[in-house]
Write a structure and sequence with these properties.
Layout (H helix, E strand, L loop, with lengths): L7 E6 L3 H11 L4 E6 L2 H23 L4 H21 L4 H4 L2 H12 L4 H10 L4 H7 L5 H16 L4 H10 L5 H10 L10
Parallel strand pairs: 1-2
Helix pairs in contact: 2-3, 2-5, 2-6, 2-8, 2-9, 3-5, 8-9, 9-10
């Protein structure tokens, strides 16, 4: 989209405010808006964690779920990645910005998203090995899920959506079973896991 001249925005994250401003000036153009952020941890985590949520959204799409389901998965997924990110030293507002919500919306809804594609195919009942064998590029969420679950355990953060995606990716559950399981998780206050 950027190469095609469509408007876009991105984030440069760095602890050095002087250098990051210089880089911002180098990369910005008329249709490419560049923002700065000194929350390097939050920006890095947002870029990794959203891929797992995109797989979950894809699994729902592959099973014929509607817009409300997609919206709920994205919103609750954002809550999950924010909890882990904050526990690891990131700032909550980073996850509400382009490096979090912005990147997640694009990855969860774009037909070009590799992670969403993996989820769609899993949702249709296909085998992970079969899906990966057909792909030219890597779906990062499939590779990062084990490390993300280890971090969630280390930091004591509940991540029911990411956990179910991990179970499907590792062959411990089918997408339809995991999806039904998510619907059975008791719901509390919106600020709580689940």
């Amino acid at each position: 989209e950027i190469m095609a001249g469509q408007a876009a925005a991105g984030v440069i994250a760095m602890g050095d405010d002087i250098i990051v401003r210089e880089l911002q000036a180098v990369f910005k153009s008329g249709l490419f808006r560049v923002y700065t952020n000194n929350d390097v941890i939050g920006c890095e985590l947002g870029g990794v964690l959203k891929n797992i949520i995109a797989i979950a959204v894809g699994m729902g799409d592959g099973q014929g779920a509607g817009d409300n389901t997609r919206s709920a998965l994205i919103t609750r997924g954002l809550a999950e990645i924010t909890r882990l990110g904050v526990a690891m030293g990131g700032r909550p507002e980073t996850f509400a910005g382009l490096a979090g919500m912005g990147d997640m919306i694009a990855t969860c809804t774009s037909p070009q998203s590799r992670n969403r594609h993996v989820g769609v195919e899993l949702g249709k009942g296909r085998d992970m090995k079969e899906i990966v064998a057909e792909m030219v590029m890597v779906a990062e969420g499939a590779k990062s899920a084990p490390a993300v679950m280890a971090l969630a355990e280390k930091y004591g953060v509940e991540m029911p959506i990411a956990s179910d995606v991990y179970r499907v990716l590792s062959g411990d559950a089918t997408a339809s079973r995991a999806f039904r399981g998510l619907l059975r998780v008791s719901a509390g206050a919106e600020c709580e896991p689940g």
